[in-house]
Specification:
Blueprint lengths: L6 E6 L5 H15 L3 E6 L13 E7 L7 H8 L8 E8 L7 H10 L3 E9 L3 E2 L1 E2 L2 H24 L9 H15 L4 H7 L1 E3 L9 H5 L22 H5 L5 E3 L11 H4 L1
Parallel strand pairs: 1-2, 1-3, 3-4, 4-5
Antiparallel strand pairs: 6-7, 8-9
Helix pairs in contact: 1-4
Length: about 260
């Protein structure tokens, strides 16, 4: 039975806030048990410089059956693990299929020791929107699940399912789908659009965009590096940004939580 080390780094990517809420609940529970736990933003971290003497946690949302390209880029660049204990947490509205098993295989091949994985249902943030009361209830249940996962990790009882054949197919499909996100077609169908009549030019969207897709000062447009995490819409104080034809915006946390 492999237990968590005393020091743990959890690398987190969160778009509209669900994953950050779950990762904080997990980290708080580990810290309460005496583990020295730190959270780091994936988009501002260099995977080549992680400290493999500490436990490694990865927390991210599900997108297109697995996760976002920027998260995969981080995972692909992780250094050899040398037996480092690792675990994963993802948040999703329904189904993934192409992340849990494939990530276990990738980390094992890199020399990490997989301790456990959990997928946590949280409010939908794209197309299907939960009513406010239902969304709040899902968040509470998700945080409880994250705390329970922390206890399973501490006790050495967490599970990380092995790889069914379908998972590999969904993983490959996901990588193909996300590779199309930067095409002009996706920009026409799903583009994050900024309403110039509402925009206050506060700069929060540009400052917090994880892919620097809103990079040109005073020109508030989203370019093709956008990966549709919808963080810009979630943090906009003027409610000036929408994804495609979506009529509403989901936000689980405030801009200050990212800053």
């Amino acid at each position: 039975m492999r237990l968590l080390p005393e020091e743990i780094d959890i690398y987190v990517f969160s778009g509209t806030g669900n994953t950050l809420l779950a990762a904080r609940a997990l980290a708080d529970e580990l810290s309460a048990a005496g583990k020295r736990t730190r959270l780091w933003p994936i988009e501002r971290s260099d995977p080549a410089k992680i400290d493999i003497r500490r436990g490694l946690g990865l927390a991210f949302p599900v997108a297109a059956f697995s996760t976002y390209p920027l998260v995969w880029r981080f995972i692909d660049r992780l250094p050899p693990g040398g037996g480092t204990a690792a675990f994963m947490l993802d948040t999703l509205a329904g189904f993934s299929g192409g992340i849990v098993g494939p990530l276990r295989r990738i980390l094992t091949c890199k020399g990490y020791t997989p301790l456990g994985a959990i997928e946590i249902i949280m409010p939908g943030n794209f197309l299907r929107m939960d009513p406010a009361e239902k969304a709040r209830a899902k968040i509470v249940r998700g945080q409880v699940a994250a705390r329970q996962f922390a206890h399973a990790l501490l006790a050495g009882e967490a599970k990380w399912p092995r790889i069914p054949l379908a998972a590999d197919a969904l993983y490959l499909l996901s990588r193909c789908i996300t590779s199309l996100w930067r095409t002009r077609l996706s920009q026409r169908l799903l583009a994050m659009r900024i309403d110039p009549a509402k925009c206050q030019k506060c700069g929060l969207c540009r400052r917090l965009c994880p892919t620097s897709a809103i990079a040109v000062p005073e020109k508030y447009e989203v370019d093709t590096t956008c990966e549709y995490c919808q963080r810009c819409a979630a943090v906009c104080p003027a409610d000036a940004i929408r994804c495609g034809r979506s009529a509403t915006v989901y936000r689980a946390i405030k801009a200050e939580d990212y800053l």
